[in-house]
Amino acid sequence: MRFSNPLPTVIMLLSVAAAYLLFGKTLEADPGGSALRMAGTVVLGSLIASTIRIAAQWEKALVFRLGKYHAVKGPGPFFVIPVFDNVRLVDTRIVTLDIPRQQAITKDNVPVSIDGVIFMRVNNPADAVIRVQDYRHAIRQYAQTALRDVIGNMSLDEILNEREIIGERIQAMVETETDGWGLEVAAIRIQDIELPEDLKRVMARQASAEREKRANITKSEGDREAAANLAAAAHTMLASPGALQLRTLQTLDGLGSSASNTVVMAIPVEVIDAMRAVPQLAKAFGDAKALEPGSAVPAVAVGEKAAEAG
């Protein structure tokens, strides 16, 4: 945005009004002389108007007198010598310059297309204008070259994971090359990295495999924890004979909560417990019968009983 200077226009209008007020009344009596004096007044007003310039708060004015650098003026109003002085305004705000998209080869021989943006400002207008013909174009070209050099020294994984480091390296190289240009590079950032389509598909498959691996590991860890909890529950139920029956009743209650479900118990839990106790009763009955008087006891059994008694 260029700041417009209203003072020359105002001074020109004032000079025209002053010429009319001073010589307008004598224009009929002396047309030639009055017209000449009016023209001289207007020309004088134009010269006065051309001596006043205004630079905005974000601008610096370089004054060249007869082609030679004279001074830096502004911001605000300043005076110049008409015809002899030439003024060039320089914007000192931070500006953004795009680094055009370009293709580069990484350290591991992968072609990538990459672009970026430069944030810079002019801190010394005299050096920026006098030493460099077009400082914006020049710094953009340096950034392009530095970008290719940095990408060529990094692998694809480093480029994808370290964008900020890439910008910092490019910024350091550009600052070194443009030292003395009167420019300050605030930052250089990478905007987009474009990869070949076949490489994108390979990376997508790799990412899918990694996610599947993590899912399987998570599922196996969950199964292991569930097995450990089930084992602990089994030990607890084994220590409490009625716990298994209560758990069975809870399961039946969960199955029969809907009216459409019908649960039929073929064998009651008590019968199952009684059947489990039959082998123990048979063993106890056999031991008791073997110890009765007059019963034949094997020698091995007698030896074992003697050892137990001893």
Write the layout of secondary structure elements.
Layout: H1 7-23, H2 31-50, E1 52-55, E2 59-65, E3 68-73, E4 76-79, E5 85-91, E6 95-105, E7 111-122, H3 125-130, H4 135-152, H5 156-161, H6 163-177, E8 183-194, H7 197-239, H8 241-255, H9 269-290, H10 299-309
Antiparallel strand pairs: 1-4, 2-3, 2-5, 6-7, 7-8
Helix pairs in contact: 1-2, 4-6, 7-8
Give the helix level as a range of percent: 55-70%
Give the termini distance in whole angstroms: 112 Å
Number of DSSP helical runs: 10
Backbone structural class: alpha+beta
Overall CATH architecture of the largest domain: 2-Layer Sandwich
Strand order of the largest sheet: 3-2-5
CATH H level of the largest domain: which superfamily?
Band 7 domain
Please give the CATH class of the largest domain.
Answer: Alpha Beta
Q: Tell me what portion of residues adopts beta-strand conformation.
A: 15-25%
Flag low-confidence runs: 295-310
**Based on CA inertia axes, which overall geometry fits?**
elongated
Overall residue-averaged pLDDT value? 80
CATH topology of the largest domain: Tetrahydropterin Synthase, Chain A
**Secondary-structure element sequence?**
HHEEEEEEEHHHHEHHHH
